[in-house]
Amino acid sequence: MAATTSGYRILWLRTRPAVPAGPDLPVEVAVQVATVALADHPGAVVDRVEVDRTGGYTAHLVTRSGVRVVVEVDRDLTVVRWLALAR
Fold it and tell me: Which domain of life is it from (predicted)?
């Protein structure tokens, strides 16, 4: 597991061996994507960060209330849109 601290927040990125490997995603980029996604959803927890088909990124979060949120982030590290998944 990799962790980083940023102003009293601890961010955990975990690997999921059951998920097929996608294109390589450097840890530094994954942390930047997660930080951008968390800024849009304060208090959420990062489940995973992936590279999507278009070359952008997708951050999978879980909010404090347990809602799963998928946040799409472009190559410029800007949130494009997000989607809350049904429980």
Answer: Bacteria
Neighbours of 54 (CB within 10 A): 11
pTM given for the model: 0.72
φ, ψ dihedrals at 6, nearest 5° = -150, 100
Mean pLDDT of the chain: 82
Q: Averaging pLDDT over each range in 3-7, 20-24, 40-44, which range is the top one?
A: 40-44
Taking the domains of the chain in order of start, what are their residue ranges? 2-84
More confident residue, 10 or 72: 72
* C-beta of residue 61 within 8 angstroms of C-beta of residue 37: yes
* CA-atom Rg of the chain in angstroms: 12
26 contacts 49 by C-beta, under 8 angstroms? no
